[in-house]
Design goal:
This protein has about 160 residues and is α/β, with parallel strands linked by helices. Helices cover about 40% and strands about 25% of the residues.
Length: about 160
């Protein structure tokens, strides 16, 4: 399992302060991925300043060009984008954490046998008990830090996508 935080990001050289969703609803534009859960979340809150795009790179380019004031992404997505577009991650700052998601492995309720589900559960528990699960999570934490300069940490066998407090 992993935990990911959906954050409103702005330019590091800006003076924008976001302390609530109300503050965010007043900016000139928030770039979101068209059809994504973040667009849907803000739309249900009545946001009228959303700028939906097809590709995350468009959000980065629009933000750095000053065409919008915020992008709504996770830390890992921002770190990955910065790396892919040869942009320093330090040009972006997290301004407001909106919500967090936990990621799990999903299985079809009607298409997965009880035996298969049990095998997954038993194997996962065995991996947690013998330390394999934690070793894999720590390996990915190290990889993400090395390749994306993004701190993560492992707590209770969960990879947390943020700097350890």
């Amino acid at each position: 399992m992993t935990t990911r935080h959906s954050i409103l990001w702005g330019q590091a050289n800006g003076r924008l302060k976001i302390e609530s969703l109300v503050d965010a609803s007043r900016v000139k534009g928030i770039c979101v991925i068209r059809g994504g859960n973040r667009e849907a979340f803000l739309a249900t809150k009545g946001f009228e300043n959303l700028v939906p795009v097809e590709a995350p790179g468009q959000c980065l380019n629009m933000l750095l060009a000053g065409r919008i004031e915020l992008i709504f992404m996770s830390s890992l997505e921002v770190a990955s984008l910065a790396t892919m577009h040869n942009t320093s991650k330090t040009k972006l700052v997290p301004l407001y954490k909106v919500f967090s998601n936990k990621s799990y492995i999903a299985m079809s309720k009607n298409g997965t046998s009880a035996q298969t589900v049990k095998q997954w559960q038993d194997t996962t528990q065995a991996m947690k008990d013998d330390g394999t699960f934690s070793r894999i999570a720590n390996k990915w934490s190290d990889y993400i830090l090395k390749h994306y300069a993004m701190p993560t940490y492992v707590k209770n066998n969960v990879l947390i996508f943020e700097q350890k407090r």
